[in-house]
Input
Amino acid sequence: MKSAMINFLRQNLNPNPLYSNSPNPGQYPVKAPKHGVAIALILIATLGLGACTRPSTPPLASASAPSEAAPAPANTQEKKVILTTFTVLADMVRNVAGDRAIVESLTKPGAEIHDYEPTPSDLVRAQEADLILDNGLGLERWAERFYGSVQDVPRQTISQGVTAIPIAEGPYQNKPNPHAWMSPTAALVYVENIRQALVQVDPANEATYNANAKAYSQQIKEVDQRLRTALSALPANQRYLVSCEGAFTYLIQDYDLKEIYLWPINAEQEGTPQQIRRAIDQVKSNQAPVVFCESTVNANAQKQVASEAGAEFGGVFYVDSLTDANGPAPTYLQLLEYNVDTLIKGLQGG
Ligand SMILES: [Zn+2]
Output
């Protein structure tokens, strides 16, 4: 019954974003909700949609065998629904949850996350979830207002306990740089926070979550060691990582690299003439041979930097989003390895 109502909501809601982007960083102008939101909120209130669980397997087809009447006990167990804000986090949570929970990402692969514009159907998904996990550190600039419309769903911020590195400049100067997951060391803190959050909401599966978290942490450590070894071979004058967004601050700290970026964080100002001029000067003066740009933003400004600084454009990094299954970074660990491989290939001349 409830799922029929939710389907109705999903099919009838306005697909447009709930809010337009704020012109001022950190400020959220109060706007009257659009028609679709009002309907969603009224329906949520009227129907009393609350946190719920879903069956662990889809219902059997109506034409199936008589055994339908007596499903195995394992199939009757209900799984918790864990909603994460973006694809990287969803993959980490899936690794800890295994098959014991349903893990979803609010944003799709390739989506911009900082200034994401939630839709009314996102609100319904959040209201349906048993637990919402976000990155925090200011990544989800839209989150506070979004959560204001979600009632009685527990939330956890997964970067808690990570030592934040402040943003060096621009309108968000001195606010935390949110990209802590780009450091495998910090990712271990994420995994422990995810484990604790899952155990809290679903203590019946504690042993599985503990074992999965341990195994996944071990995998992260192995990738970390591989990347450390590969990057340590780079000569001292070739340790520049040039990106569009200053999203590698945690990673360069782990691996003793140097960072040049076009803009400090994805926001309103991306690729201004001043930013391009400065990047060209820095790439030239440090003789960085290659520059890159992230998958979720426009690379044109960085291609201009490459061309005017006499550097190569080395391709795309994945930071704020995974790719879909057919792309080069469908998991967090593959994202880390792809970026470092791409960087090393670029620095070594392809
Ligand atoms: Zn970012």
User: Anything to note?
Assistant: Confidence is low (pLDDT under 50) at residues 1-12, 20-52, 55-76. The beta strands are 54-55, 78-84, 101-105, 131-134, 155-157, 240-245, 258-263, 290-294, 312-317.
